[in-house]
Amino acid sequence: MTRIARRMADIQPFHVMEILKRAHALAAEGRDIIHLEVGEPDFPSPAPIVEAGRRFLTSGHVHYTPALGLTALREAIARFYHDRFGADVAPERIIVTPGASGALMLALGVLTDPGDEWLLPDPGYPSNRHLVRSFEGKPVALPVDATTRFQPTPAHVAAAWTPNTRGLMVASPANPTGTLLELDEIVALRDTVAARGGVLIVDEIYQGLNYGVEASTALSRADDVFVVNSFSKYFGMTGWRLGWMVVPEGYVRDIEKLAQHFFISPSTPAQHAALAAFEPGTLEILEARRHAFADRRNALLPALREIGFRFATEPQGAFYLYADISDIAASSEELAQRLIEEAGVATTPGVDFGDNAPERHLRIAYTTDEARLVEAAERIRRVL
Amino acid sequence: MTRIARRMADIQPFHVMEILKRAHALAAEGRDIIHLEVGEPDFPSPAPIVEAGRRFLTSGHVHYTPALGLTALREAIARFYHDRFGADVAPERIIVTPGASGALMLALGVLTDPGDEWLLPDPGYPSNRHLVRSFEGKPVALPVDATTRFQPTPAHVAAAWTPNTRGLMVASPANPTGTLLELDEIVALRDTVAARGGVLIVDEIYQGLNYGVEASTALSRADDVFVVNSFSKYFGMTGWRLGWMVVPEGYVRDIEKLAQHFFISPSTPAQHAALAAFEPGTLEILEARRHAFADRRNALLPALREIGFRFATEPQGAFYLYADISDIAASSEELAQRLIEEAGVATTPGVDFGDNAPERHLRIAYTTDEARLVEAAERIRRVL
Ligand SMILES: Cc1ncc(COP(=O)(O)O)c(C=O)c1O
Ligand SMILES: Cc1ncc(COP(=O)(O)O)c(C=O)c1O
């Protein structure tokens, strides 16, 4: 073997895959495993979306599309911003991508010079720091905790900013914590970043999965931010690999160039299926699912608290609970191991999400039905 | 707007998109346009593939797959190498990707340090040099011409090698020239590269589209090369966005890490559809198409020669003819413009493929049926 690029020494795998592997091994032995580690909805893609996909396939003509996506889909996304959020977004600013993953690659590829620093809240979505590193940027962790709902503040940003800082990435609702930023807070972060000549990337992939608060978009208050989104989570389309990004107009042409070479175009069947994502019938299904997620959350959260898991801030979005387990165990990795082995419950230890007290935190996803969640809590209680 | 990454100054768009736009505009005015610029089969995806995709969708359960792809698909690809080429490739070395594009990103991402040089034949597939640049590598053009069938030789490689050279990328059959490398030539290139501690990437995306010669794979003679492939071309699945790569075993784990963050996983419907790609019924359809491509080539090549297009080397693969137009016009860009405006025939000028005499070359794709090809040649004849 010849040498491997230096960046690979800094790029970590998804550690949860080890838990997943163990879960599969135990299941193969006949053990009943409850999956609370999975970061995707357990629901099938909504029937109208599936039907649109199947209908499109009938002709068999599955060719490349324009690199930025089908015009009809970009227009449908623009209408969705208007109808649901009252936000006016020109379709020309909407880039259809292979998932939010593809959007993040394009944003970072077009913005990041070697040595550029990106501020990333820690804990946060693991891929962000690895994508920054992939383009030779430098991920800089902003440690955040329950006192600011695990979200960065202008003070965090100001304190961490250096002449090399390129910008800030946030997510609302966030993974792994499920917490939101209010629009005023996003505007304040944008102002802080813009005053320093930087860029704010807002990952809204869990948009629509919010409980007790209204869904929102940064775009209703700012058009100089990069907004990342996806059909994966709220729309229940993970495996289709389709997302989008809204960017300031001046960046579109450069992103198009990069998209041509990175991806040629996003999946054609997925784009045609997604045309059905914004139909009233589909949105009705999705809202019913949102209520189911809320019910799950409302069942699981108190049950876990009773066992000794702590949530200093109540998550109001996504489908994750980020528990402080320091009253129960010294190490979240050991706890996760114990839970999978002794309770048959798979969870994600904090190590995947950064370096900020990962041993004290466990991510629990309510991507399985309520009865199973209740059983999982009961099994955990018995083990602990 | 804030600053854009420096790499963007070096990254060019697909210039042919301008021709395509003009073609659409003319068509909208009612003009009949013959498309000889398109780099994808005009055929629909084969019915068994489409049916497998539609069948899979029925349940609606379209979730993420493992980052390296479905085990069943990796095994099916391994069997295909064995059955068709007698090559033994362990499924564990096969990485399923979002198109050959995704495979090229992973290969270059895992191999390229900033400043690393990659040797790329010029003319060649445009994205290669831009992907190298995206990871802060340095694309180094190897000018090649008809005297070596537009393919690099060990002498080219040896002469261009520097202490910073990381490796060589070749394609067989190649885009835009349609020429092949023989297995002995690939082995000689591999030896030249390996002796210098470098890596050879062989892009076999047009494998199976060969006329008058047998299809082959570098894998039947070497297991220390990176072999890129795709369901896009021979298998007629461009819009599904699915490809694969075979890598030396020691690289698999690092590539898996990168794939998790770049893509999470390849398209799930595409993977299930592709499971039908190697069935005897599908291969029968594909072989019939190969014969149709051969007939097209055999009709178009002499017709173009008669008009004055020169082909010093006969292309034997892919679906491209790379014509020397210096007997007809001074500039391929002007000629392409004239052909679209006056003959209603869209072609791709050499500028997309590099800096090596692009003004003297035009790429003509026979991705349209024989009658239309004959008409295109006739229209061109009349104009010239
Ligand atoms: C915060 C966040 N951003 C982006 C992604 C990427 O998702 P996808 O590429 O499926 O849209 C994820 C997936 O879990 C995520 O949690
Ligand atoms: C030589 C070559 N490599 C790779 C690709 C990428 O194709 P895909 O990503 O559809 O597999 C192409 C597409 O035209 C090509 O010509």
From TrEMBL, chains A, B:
E.C. designation(s): 2.6.1.-
Aminotransferase class I/classII large domain residues: 32-380
Keyword Transferase assigned: yes
Pfam families, A to Z: Aminotran_1_2
Keyword set, alphabetical order: Aminotransferase, Pyridoxal phosphate, Transferase
GO MF entry, a single one: transaminase activity
Main EC class the enzyme belongs to: transferase
InterPro entries: Aminotransferase_I/II_large, AspAT/PAT-like, NHTrfase_class1_PyrdxlP-BS, PyrdxlP-dep_Trfase, PyrdxlP-dep_Trfase_major
Alphabetical list of Gene3D superfamilies matching this protein: Type I PLP-dependent aspartate aminotransferase-like (Major domain)
CDD domains to which the protein is assigned, alphabetical: AAT_like
Cofactor(s), names only, from the UniProt record: pyridoxal 5'-phosphate
Family classification: Belongs to the class-I pyridoxal-phosphate-dependent aminotransferase family.
Alphabetical list of PANTHER family matching this protein: AMINOTRANSFERASE (PTHR46383:SF2), ASPARTATE AMINOTRANSFERASE (PTHR46383)
Protein name: Aminotransferase
